[in-house]
Specification:
666 residues; alpha+beta; 8-stranded antiparallel barrel; 17 helices; BC-like_N
């Protein structure tokens, strides 16, 4: 077995590989850029080597710099993680020339299956059903428009060397095909150093289901079930689960056997993933093969008990698989939620900054319940604009899908993140969505269910009453604390009332509190009661309460006259007032937001790639105004209505903060 492995990656996947290597008794080497000098993966590794400036194209994807780090440390093998150099055949060739093992497939398999155009041709030759498309390379935007019309809209423009949603665009008309072609080329060049683009038919209402395969160099190959990855945004997965709630055993076996046959046709070794589009009749079509470890591999590990990173290392060491197909049993259900540094209330745009608070739920491994959090960040660390915005992958496992979902709901409620925008509220909303709960989602789930973006959650009446009762009980505890402050004047004792009005999400709940040593009994105006018990103390930002015997987890922030409460995707201000205060509050005027309708604001911290208009230009609704790049993704900002450009405050190359004014209109 290897004595030392270098991880040619960063963030959570580098930390994940280090954990398995450590378990196997293998020393690890981390590499890092200037931006990652204090990163978690650097701290976890036995050694660390600096490889350059923050941009990935000057550090993590520069083969010569990674090779220098290998020579400096004497690493015998390299695990590439995902992204960066993980599917780069030149990197694998450089390692082979140096006599260093690549913890991944052979160069030939990477070249054949890592390139989406070549892989589709091989799949067709092997008799695998593929999605209609243009398999050749596209020279320019005019050719992209011509081919798109031949295939028929909608079409998908994809980077040949792409992955993780980078370099991908859906086009519904000629204008979008032209814009998407250029943006896809730019993203592909920046992320992978390869700007080749191809086009295929975009199948509407599909499911995205993928098969995990594992092959060794002795001719053995197995599949480890499937992963349902249909909940995606901008072609990037957000929620994954294993197994799929849609597949039956016969379809699972057919997909699995086809995936293994395809892998063995190119002499594949190591872990890999064959992705399929599956329609409503369970017809499946080959999409692509990812010749690396997938981001969502933990859900497969949780239902099979197989450590995929360990198996990859053993296969790279020349060992034969000890797992046969008949040994693979799918046990229970696992769900993964990707926690991203992006603001769901701003159209999921990237958010960077310092994690002033980062408290994941406790990891749990016990019979009937597992909570796992794969992460590469820590409290006080900084989310950089240079890399992918994923903060963590929160996973739960339970014997049934319903139990796994409930475990995930509770884990999300207990996950504390402050300092940046993040998608925790959105993930909580998905876990409670009827379509997800029924297992009937497609890849169009997010755009169909949230067509105007995510604007928060309106909780049902019963949930609001529970939270209102909990907040009343917490307010009483806080009031008791305030009566005990030192330095009070004699004969000025403050008495705590029993009648309160709790206001949240537009509802007012009048109630009376009857407290004892064990908790509080809340009586509502309609005569109903709720019993609240908790050991919460003022200042704690996480409250775990029992309301009528059921667990309620709330994130708690202090605001004047009440709390900022976050629970199950809802983010709300809760005011607890005396009846007289509540009466007067109704007379207060509402604060009106400033008018920004004549301004184009930068929606996220980023770099201006280009400005498409000039002062004096008349723009139409939907017209492209400028392009902003953040976290390796290009975002085209378009006019929301007709107008004339009166002032432009930014130019290509400028770095802007969130809400900075890019241009003004008459």
């Amino acid at each position: 077995m290897f004595n030392k492995i270098l991880i040619a990656n960063r963030g959570e996947i580098a930390c994940r590989v280090i954990k398995s290597a450590r378990k196997m008794g293998i020393q690890t080497v981390a590499i890092y850029s200037d931006a990652d000098r204090n990163a978690l993966h650097v701290e976890m590794a036995d050694e660390a080597v600096h490889i350059g400036p923050p941009p990935a194209n000057q550090s993590y994807i520069v083969i010569d710099k990674v090779m220098d780090a290998i020579r400096q440390t004497g690493a015998q093998a390299v695990h590439p993680g995902y992204g960066f150099l993980s599917e780069n055949s030149k990197f694998a060739s450089a390692l082979a020339a140096e006599g260093v093992a690549f913890v991944g497939p052979p160069v030939g398999a990477i070249e054949k299956m890592g390139d989406k155009i070549t892989s589709k041709k091989i799949a067709q030759e092997a008799g695998v059903s593929t999605v209609p498309g243009h398999m050749g390379l596209i020279e320019d935007a005019d050719e992209a428009v011509k081919i798109s019309n031949e295939i028929g809209y909608p079409v998908m423009l994809k980077a040949s060397a792409g992955g993780g949603g980078k370099g991908m665009r859906i086009a519904w008309n000629d204008e979008e095909a032209r814009e998407g072609f250029q943006s896809s080329k730019n993203e592909a060049a920046n992320s992978f150093g390869d700007d080749r683009i191809f086009i295929e038919k975009f199948v509407t209402q599909p499911r995205h289901i993928e098969i995990q395969v594992l092959c060794d160099s002795h001719g053995n190959g197995i599949y480890l079930g499937e992963r349902e990855c249909s909940i995606q945004r901008r072609q990037q997965k957000v929620v994954e689960e294993a197994p799929s709630p849609f597949l039956d055993e016969a379809t699972r076996r057919a997909m699995g056997e086809q995936a293994v046959a395809l892998a063995q046709a190119v002499d594949y070794t190591s872990a890999g993933t064959v992705e399929f589009i599956v329609d409503g009749d369970k017809n499946f079509y080959f999409l692509e093969m990812n010749t690396r470890l997938q981001v969502e591999h933990p859900v497969t590990e949780l239902i099979t008990g197989v450590d995929l990173v360990e198996q990859m290392i053993r296969v790279a060491n020349g060992e034969e698989l000890t797992i046969k197909q008949e040994d693979v049993k799918l046990n229970g259900w696992a769900i993964e939620n990707r926690l991203y540094a992006e603001d769901p209330y701003r159209g999921f745009l990237p958010s960077i900054g310092r994690l002033t608070r980062y408290r994941p739920p406790a990891e749990v491994v016990e019979e009937g319940h597992i909570v796992r959090n794969d992460t590469g960040v820590f409290e006080g660390g900084e989310i950089s604009m240079y890399y992918d915005p994923m903060i963590a992958k929160l996973c739960t496992w339970a014997p049934t899908r319903a139990e796994a979902i409930e475990a995930m709901r509770n884990a999300l409620d207990g996950f504390e993140v402050e300092g940046i925008g993040h998608n925790l509220p959105f993930l909580s909303a998905v876990m409670d969505h009827p379509i997800f709960m029924a297992g009937e989602m497609t890849t169009a789930f997010i755009e169909e269910q949230y067509p105007d973006g995510f604007e928060g959650v309106e909780l049902p009446a019963d949930a609001l009453r529970k939270i209102a009762a909990a907040c009343a009980a917490m307010h009483r505890v806080a009031e008791i604390r305030r009566t005990r402050v030192s330095g009070r004047m004699d004969n000025h004792e403050r008495r705590i009332g029993v009648d309160w009005v709790v206001s949240l999400q537009g509802e007012d709940y009048a109630m009376t509190i009857d407290a004892d040593r064990d908790g509080s009994t809340i009586e509502f105006a309609d005569g109903t009661h709720k019993r609240v018990t908790s050991d919460w103390t003022p200042g704690n930002q996480l409250a775990e309460l029992e309301v009528d015997g059921e667990t309620l987890v709330l994130k708690v922030g202090k605001i004047p006259g009440g709390f900022r409460i976050r629970s199950r995707g809802a983010d709300m201000k809760v005011h607890v007032r005396t009846p007289r205060q509540a009466e007067l509050a109704k007379l207060m005027p509402e604060k009106v937001a400033p008018d920004t309708s004549k301004l184009l604001l930068c929606p996220m911290p980023g770099l201006i790639v280009n400005v498409a208009v000039q002062v004096g230009d008349e723009v139409q609704e939907g017209q492209a105004l400028c392009t902003v790049e953040a976290m390796k993704m290009e975002n085209i900002l378009k006019a929301e209505k007709k107008g004339t450009v009166s002032k432009i405050n930014a130019a290509a190359g400028d770095s802007l903060a969130v809400d900075e004014v890019i241009m003004e209109f008459e």
